[in-house]
């Protein structure tokens, strides 16, 4: 599978009419360039050029690049909601559901763009990492009630780290054994470990899952 976020997005044909259309165009271009270049590499001027607007409009709508990044990631993704939905169901199958949902999002071009933006930005800019951690932590708390200080967060962190490592090896580093593996076969290999991590989360006090 080929990653080409630049080739898959529409090129600007000029300034979009209306505040709403301009704002949406900026967010589309920002997400695409954050995915291609990471947080540090995607300048306000480059995003403005890609969106067909003046850089001053980005400052008008978002203030600075930090805010633009946070809004682009949060407004342009249903990733937390999809992962939250995978938590519902039989506890003994939670590892398979979460693994299938997460790895499937890496296989889908639209969600892969967002995931690439997150990875490339958070690994090159501490500020971007802080914002993403805060955003995901807020989603986690809203969905599950788990906070950063909760003992259950260890299991969540281990599951997330395992899944991220597999995704990076498959889609970014392209380790042949993983890059060519069928999705269902890969899920079957990874899910038991995720089940172990998340099963421990459910076993701790307060770990009852909300259907």
Automatic annotation (TrEMBL):
> Positions of the region Disordered?
1-22
Which domain of life does this protein belong to?
A: Bacteria
Domain HTH tetR-type residues, every copy: 20-80
Say if the entry is tagged with keyword DNA-binding: yes
Q: Which residues bind DNA?
A: 43-62
Record's InterPro entries?
Homeodomain-like_sf (IPR009057), HTH-type_TetR-like_transc_reg (IPR050109), HTH_TetR (IPR001647), Tet_transcr_reg_TetR-rel_C_sf (IPR036271), TetR_C_16 (IPR041678)
Keyword DNA-binding part of the UniProt annotation: yes
The record's keywords, sorted A to Z, are:
DNA-binding
Q: What PROSITE patterns does this protein map onto?
A: HTH_TETR_2
Q: Know the name of this protein?
A: TetR/AcrR family transcriptional regulator
């Amino acid at each position: 599978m080929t990653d080409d976020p630049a080739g898959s997005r529409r090129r600007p044909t000029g300034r979009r009419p209306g505040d709403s259309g301009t704002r949406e165009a900026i967010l589309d271009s920002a997400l695409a360039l954050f995915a291609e270049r990471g947080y540090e590499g995607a300048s306000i001027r480059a995003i403005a050029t890609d969106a067909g607007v003046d850089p001053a409009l980005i400052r008008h709508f978002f203030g600075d690049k930090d805010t633009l990044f946070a809004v682009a990631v949060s407004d342009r993704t249903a990733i937390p909601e999809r992962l939250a939905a995978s938590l519902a169901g039989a506890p003994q199958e939670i590892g398979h559901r979460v693994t299938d949902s997460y790895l499937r999002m890496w296989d889908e071009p639209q969600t892969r763009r967002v995931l690439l933006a997150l990875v490339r930005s958070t690994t090159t800019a501490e500020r971007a990492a802080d914002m993403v951690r805060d955003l995901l932590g807020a989603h986690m708390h809203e969905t599950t009630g788990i906070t950063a200080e909760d003992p259950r967060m260890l299991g969540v962190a281990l599951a997330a780290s395992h899944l991220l490592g597999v995704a990076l090896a498959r889609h970014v580093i392209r380790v042949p054994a993983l890059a060519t593996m069928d999705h269902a076969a890969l899920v079957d290999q990874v899910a038991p470990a995720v089940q172990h991590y998340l099963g421990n989360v459910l076993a701790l006090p307060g770990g009852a899952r909300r259907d």
